[in-house]
Design brief:
With 424 residues, the protein is an alpha/beta fold. The protein has helices at 3-21, 91-102, 104-117, 121-129, 155-171, 205-222, 242-259, 270-273, 301-315, 329-340, 374-382, 391-405, 414-421; strands at 51-53, 56-58, 64-65, 67-71, 134-140, 174-181, 228-232, 265-268, 287-293, 319-324, 349-352, 356-357, 366-367, 411-412.
Length: 424
């Protein structure tokens, strides 16, 4: 009695999939936007990607999966703090000020050298060897799209992402694509590489459209890549009000689902990805909430995790700690133990911030040795004066920094590694 019913369901699904696959590869803006209230099943039958099943995620074969990974901060998006102590500048500001010292072309050359050397195949190989199974890849929208040429996506940017996916496939390391800086910026803080306040994504309808279109282009391009564990839609958004975030992420979800029905979607909340009150229910089937948790002003981890647990239980969705770190070895170890405790609902796993950076107040996993005179340059970049640093010396420092950033020249902190892997 069930065979005719299953036959028609199979035909319907086949037609839906064929229709999804047959669309154009690039669209200047998203096509028809599905209303935000549209719903999707928890997961599609025989989903070939990492996907949600209730409060857990499973791999393409349907086996339970916990992501244990690292962020690749400082590669395809720069945060001033990743270059040294007390330099809270956006990537665009860093580049503008650096260009005043060495010239625009030399500054651009430095950026290209970072792209070529900061993360290489050896990093992915080492990440896998150390026992991690995933990376979160922070992306600046500017690697794919220039403000003066909107919707014209750059092959050079696709090539950079492709490197990560190819290395991930080679070493069995899943990649989470993270839009760390959306067009216009989703906050005024340096990690968002923000434009002028009046051009932020929350005040610019054009930047909203560009963000939606960009995600649709990303999803269209990578819809068949099993190594992509998920799409992290907007990093640490700070909207004027929660409804603004709900509206934008709903529209992004709808645009993605027009071209990619299968990949896991990661939804971050307000207030540095800690407040999900604007989401009364999941925006889509096959989604996961991604929270961030740093503890610089007191230890409220148990309270915060309890709140996230309630969210997971009420909405029957997985949780993933997309960022944590920047603290002592002991604090990191106890945080990982909380995430890995089955009594909590952090079933999606975690991603440590960050894989590699220069020395700072807190230890990290891989440390870059600073070139001689580097802090003097950072001091000038933080507070520029009319007296420019010596151009020749700065060019030498930039080259030395690039070489120091390569994995073979950096140092692994095995105590931090033990902190991250202590509960494995």
């Amino acid at each position: 009695m069930r065979k005719p019913h299953l036959f028609f369901i199979s035909i319907f699904l086949l037609l839906a999939i064929v229709g999804c696959r047959g669309r154009a590869t690039v669209a200047p803006t998203p096509t028809v936007i599905i209303p935000p209230q549209s719903s999707y099943p928890d997961f599609y039958p025989q989903n070939p990607m990492v996907h949600q099943v209730g409060r857990m995620i499973v791999d393409p074969e349907g086996k339970p999966l916990r992501l244990r990974g690292v962020n690749l901060g400082g590669w395809l998006l720069w945060e001033g703090g990743g270059f040294g102590k007390a330099i809270l500048l956006s990537e665009s500001t860093l580049m503008e000020r650096l260009a005043k010292v060495v010239g625009t072309q030399a500054a651009q050359d430095f950026r290209q050298q970072i792209y070529a050397n900061f993360i290489t195949e050896k990093d992915f190989q080492r990440i896998a060897e150390l026992g991690f199974n995933s990376v979160r890849l922070p992306i600046n929208a500017k690697i794919l799209e220039d403000d003066d040429h909107p919707y014209a996506y750059k092959q050079s940017g696709w090539d950079l992402i492709e490197r990560a996916l190819t290395w991930g496939e080679k070493y069995s390391v899943y990649v989470i694509l993270d839009l760390h800086s959306a067009p216009g910026g989703q906050s005024r803080l340096s990690p968002s590489d923000p434009a002028r306040p009046e051009e932020s994504i929350w005040k610019s309808a054009d930047h909203k459209r560009r963000t939606i279109a960009l995600w649709q282009a990303i999803a269209k391009r990578y819809q068949d890549r099993k190594i992509v564990a998920g799409y992290d839609l907007i990093n640490e958004p700070l909207p004027p009000k929660g409804s603004d975030l709900y509206d934008l992420e709903s529209r992004i979800v709808a645009a993605i689902r027009q071209v990619d029905r299968y990949h896991l979607l990661i939804i971050e909340g307000d207030k540095f990805s800690s407040d999900f009150s604007m989401f009364a229910k999941p925006l889509s089937g096959n989604q996961m909430y991604g929270f961030h948790m740093y503890n610089w002003f007191g230890d409220d981890r148990k309270k915060r995790i309890a709140g996230f647990n309630q969210l997971a239980l009420q909405q029957n969705v997985p949780l993933w700690a997309g960022e944590f770190g920047e603290n002592t070895h002991d604090m990191i170890a106890s945080t990982v133990a909380m995430y890995d405790d089955p009594a909590n609902q952090v079933t999606g796993g975690w991603s440590f911030w960050t894989w590699k950076k220069v020395p700072s107040r807190w230890p990290t996993l891989v440390t870059i040795a600073l070139p001689n005179g580097w802090q003097t340059l950072l001091d000038w970049l933080s507070s520029p004066t009319k007296d420019l640093p010596d151009r020749t010396s700065v060019l030498s420092m930039l080259n030395n920094f690039v070489q120091a950033s390569r994995l073979e020249n950096a140092t692994v902190d095995h105590k931090m590694l033990n902190s991250l892997m202590s509960s494995k």
